[in-house]
Amino acid sequence: MADATLANRMQLPRPDITPEEAAEILQTHYGLSGALSELGSQQDRNYRINAGDKAYVLKICRAEYEEVELEAQNAAIRHLHAKPDAPRVPDVVPSQDGRDILAITVREQDYLIRLLGFLPGQTLTQRKHLPAASTAGLGALSARLARDLADFDHPGLHRNLQWDLRRAGPVAVQLLSAITDHEARDRIAKAMVAAVKRIQPLATALRVQPVHHDVTDDNVVSHPDAHGQPVPDGVIDFGDIIQGWLVGDLAVTCASLLHHADGNPFHILPAIKAYHAIYPLEEAEAKALWPLIVARAVILAASTEQQLAIDPDNEYVRGNLDFEREIFDVATNAQPDVMEAAILRAIGFDVAPIATDGWSALLPDIDAQEIVAVDLSVTSHDFVDGNWQKPDMDWRLLAQAAIASGAAATRYGEFRLSLATPLSMAQPQSFALHSDVCLPAGATVAAPFPGLFQRQGQHLVLIGEEVSLHLDGIETDLEDGMTIEQGAALGTIGSEGSAIGGLRVQLCRVPALEPPLFATADQADGWSAICPSPAALLNAACEAPRPDAASLLSLRNARFAKPQKHYYEFPPQIERGWREFLFDTQGRCYLDMVNNVTTLGHAHPRLTAAVAQQWSLLNTNSRFHYAAVAEFSERLAMLAPEGLDSVFLVNSGSEANDLAIRLAWAHTGKKNMLCLLEAYHGWTIASDAVSTSIADNPQALTTRPDWVHPVISPNTYRGAFRGPDSGADYLVDVAEKLQAIDEKGEGLAGFIAESVYGNAGGIALPHGYLAGAYEATRKRGGLCIADEVQVGYGRLGEHFWGFETQGVVPDIITIAKGMGNGHPLGAVITRREIAESLEKEGYFFSSAGGSPVSCAVGLTVLDILKGENLQENARVVGDRLKAGLIALMDHFPLIGAVHGTGLYLGVEFVRDRETLTPATEETAAICERLLDLGVIMQPTGDHLNVLKIKPPLCLSADSADFFVKALEKVLEDGF
Fold first, then answer.
1. CA separation, residue 543 to residues 371, 373, 532 (Å)
2. How confident is the model at residue 1 (pLDDT cuts 50, 70, 90)?
């Protein structure tokens, strides 16, 4: 095909075929009729027709395209249908007279038409955010397609196409002539020149084969995976299939992902890894990939501008305009050397190290081996009580170490805790690409290698053959542009009147680049290749070991018994907490919205001090006599309603509920227990027996012992009866279950229930429900157990105990979790005569539950709850948080309801507000996306479609607002 023909094609508008004309074509040639809708296309005209229970796509192409090119597309589709593991592709549907391609004339214009089966599934283009699973899925789909097309051939593949990246330079030149905006034209031209300059030396090493060349977000369909995330599995159009560069095919795919990247070009790496795992790239291809992505971005931008000039009514092109401009911006703003290094490292090609053997001393007056490396990581023992938030805290610790030792340095490659920004949806730039050295003022700084000296104000650069040395903090008389010999003095450490001074040391492979001092975790591999460690100039301790959460997870999985699950498939390695925040080893700060264990917040200084103080004095078990156990028991009894005056101290909620059931058995002499469906009470034999949640135990409904009698869950949102006044309806089932027990003559031991429906997200029980259930239980001599483990202890804000919301008083209260702020501590509070009934079975103690340390913890928690007014904070901030979540319901129908009070809330997701179909997969995907945005959240409920919101009670208003904004972003952008 001549270049003139290609140039002419690039000027063509779409075929001018109306829906009415398309309908006539379909009826005449295919015998089809039905509802038509137009599908977008750059230069074709496509219509979808729904004909009965089947759907098809009519593809109309201008006759300027040769029939052999369309034959190649059809042949490729049939080739893939014959492959056993190929991606889904549409069927080629022949006309009534058996032809695959028809030449027709409409209003004196000639066209070629085809009919394909419609491939069902979701497209990805309109989703602003694509999760890593989708990104990887697109890369894998591209690889599978390339692999399966490798043995395909057809004469129609050998053609000139404007999208062929082998011709990107000449095509861009032709397209630029249509762009009237001189600034945009110049930027596009410069980007293409830079890309071509990097591609040309590699071109002869790039493999050529049949490639689809359009596996993009707009040209694939997907299905949701188990986590509700879309995974591409089908390709819907073959219009750009050619004989071309294999890696160019992947470049097209990656470029399409950049408008889903939120400005981060590293977003494409999962796609490249997935591609390489299926159809490995060669090193030259890996090096060429990023400039080819830039070239694709240039062609997209230029082609869109030109096509709109030719066909201004093309809504498909206009609708993609912002996407393609964003692709261009992200591609051209990225540092190409960094992207090349990141791609190479992502798929196992290493970047050659810098040769440092011949370097001389940077600090000839200092013994480099005596430089002390200062730990500024998340696990540093120098960081306590939030002191890392103080201005210049890193420098203060560095200076202290230098004063004590003579010289000290921060560590290259360390994720700095001080840069872990709370309430940020973006990853922090916390990975250090440099070292700061604190050392005596006046110390000499020398050139470790020969080079060209550049001076940019106070910033000095020594440009060597392989690498540049960037320095700050030096006083020097050297002039810009001087040639420096190895070992020559560059200057001395400035003092500013102090005995010590600071030197910043950084290496960079790219001569003209002034590199950043820090990188984000996902960019660390790329930037660390370009800015290698300066440890060779200092000492080995000045380079931090990289955290390896994946290896640690493998060790956990190998040794920690499998039934003990962890949050998230690929969890962050959390090693520090502070207030309502958690910190991983990569310096990311997460808002903790699930941790009702830490009532006060993480690492409360008063609690830490109290534990240390008590442990330094005594820790034993409650059979010894000491003050703390008496004082703590008194405090708990005073919190309970009058008459509940006896306290058992245990080590967990499971143990508390187990003991409560044993008390009911001992006191009544009976065994039968009433409990609620969809409830959770613990993991011991007795507490698990009354736990009926299938989310916690899928076999719960079929494995209950015969003494357990579950009643219908009084779920006022999705239960058998709806609304707050449905209590009487639910009590009918309670009465029926009790009557069945009466008829057997076995008697009743008790009734156990959460006072607020915690496992379903904090749903309030219907009015009068507990009063009716308690009355019926007590009539039969049974005891009423209020499980307050999750919902009590001030979390509800308005009330300290959950049972207060129902206006009842139980016979037994069980508590745990928050009462120890993470320490293993629980309690059972009851009447004396009930407590003493247990002596029929012997005495009771819990080694950890009533220990001096546990009691010190419990007393301190109560002091802080009162002193910091945390119950009131739960009410005020909880009301604010709930109002913000309710406001989201007006915009996002996926939110079916917002349950709960105080800081025990639940957001329930449904696919339909009438049928209440649980949005289980969507909820899982939402939690994964919230993690990306810096929020820890997990699904709960029997359908796993509820966000159970139970943060530390110190949650601030700003943190509550951040959570609402993060959830809004997830629902707005996609998950």
1. 12, 8, 10
2. very low
